[in-house]
C-alpha cells in the first residue's frame, strides 16, 4: 500500500503526515448520511485535485497534525 509506505517513511524521518483519505472518507460518510450538504471535495472530472472544500479539510488536518507534534 503506497499510502502506508509513505506514512511509515514520514514517521521514520519525523515528517508530519496527514491521513487525508481517512478524513475525506469521514466527510463523505456524513454527506451520504445527510448530516452535511453534498460536496464533491475534488475538482470536477479530476478526482486527483481537491476543490476549495477539500483543500480546507486538508489544511485542517495538517494544522491538527502540526499542533499535536508541537506539544
Describe, in plain words, how this protein is organized in 3D.
The protein has 71 residues and is mostly helical. The chain contains three helices and no strands. The chain is globular and about 40 Å long.
Over the alpha carbons, how many angstroms does the gyration radius reach? 14 Å
- Mean pLDDT over the residues: 93
Oligomer: single chain
**Percent in strands:** under 5%
| Residues in helix, % | 55-70%
Q: What structural class should be given to the helix and strand makeup?
A: mainly alpha
- Could you state the order of secondary-structure elements as H and E? HHH
Q: Please give the alpha-carbon distance between the first and last residues.
A: 30 Å
Number of separate strands = 0
| Biggest sheet statistics | none
| Tally of helical segments | 3
Low-confidence segments, given as residue ranges, are none
- Globally, the shape reads globular
Detail the topology: elements first, then pairings.
Elements: H1 2-13, H2 20-33, H3 52-70
Key attributes of the depicted protein:
71 residues, mainly alpha
Summarize the structure.
The protein has 71 residues and is an all-alpha fold. It has three helices and no strands. The mean pLDDT is 93.
